Amino acid sequence: MNHPVSSREKYAQPTRRPAVVTGASSGIGAATALALAAAGHPVALGARRTEKCEEVAAAVREAGGEAVVHPLDLTDGDSVEAFAKGVTGDLGDVEVVVSNAGAVAPGTIYEVDPERFSREIDLNLTGAQRLVRAFVPGMVERQRGDFVFVSSDVAVRARPFMSSYAAGKWGLEGMAHALQMELEGTGVRASIVRPGPTWSEMGTDWDVDEAAHVLNQWVRFGLARHPHFMKPTAVADAITTVVNVPRGVHLNLVEVSPEAPLEDR
């Protein structure tokens, strides 16, 4: 009697799964690099602030993990290609890519300079496509791999005064959904992790008064129902779960939101 082939037998998974994390100098990216390393992945950290990445990599090595750092500017195609070549040379074939880099600055849509708007879209959306083009063809050839897009809840609930960021994340999720269909049957999984409000360096360079105005407008439109924010580690744990579920399972979309505080009843 023939027994059905299990998912684990059908989709062979290597024991060594090198992982790339972009935007790894702080926040969700740094936390993700640490979480993946703790789960046994050799990690390659990419960002423009390589000195910050080196601090994260040192923490990985101190804990017994393997980490390398290469400069990365996702708005520069040559930089992306050099990064992909460098990390592959250091760690071997990349099995996991976490596309996390992004930027946001406040502004009213009709007042934001179009060049700034375009730069932010380039980083948040086109930069992710450059990363896909650099790593996914090799994954398809090997018939395995995980590519995770770190999105934001602005992709489904736009927030005022974050026009380019909202537009970029809406576009990012559209691209990710199309990629999921294009990759079906290849052995490569494309997933979206969609965080809600999270403490990170993003927004810390905003003018204090401008930031307060933006937050007040979020409350006005019901976009900040409670004051709790998540730690970056919460999102990092979700990403680690997504890439380490057994083969034969695909976590297409995972939303991660801060839990509301307990209420007196």
Automatic annotation (TrEMBL):
<dbReference type="InterPro" id="IPR002347">
    <property type="entry name" value="SDR_fam"/>
</dbReference>
<dbReference type="GO" id="GO:0016491">
    <property type="term" value="F:oxidoreductase activity"/>
</dbReference>
<dbReference type="InterPro" id="IPR057326">
    <property type="entry name" value="KR_dom"/>
</dbReference>
<dbReference type="GO" id="GO:0016020">
    <property type="term" value="C:membrane"/>
</dbReference>
<feature type="domain" description="Ketoreductase">
    <location>
        <begin position="17"/>
        <end position="202"/>
    </location>
</feature>
<dbReference type="InterPro" id="IPR036291">
    <property type="entry name" value="NAD(P)-bd_dom_sf"/>
</dbReference>
<dbReference type="InterPro" id="IPR020904">
    <property type="entry name" value="Sc_DH/Rdtase_CS"/>
</dbReference>
<keyword id="KW-0560">Oxidoreductase</keyword>
<comment type="similarity">
    <text>Belongs to the short-chain dehydrogenases/reductases (SDR) family.</text>
</comment>
<protein>
    <submittedName>
        <fullName>NADP-dependent 3-hydroxy acid dehydrogenase YdfG</fullName>
    </submittedName>
</protein>
<dbReference type="Pfam" id="PF00106">
    <property type="entry name" value="adh_short"/>
</dbReference>
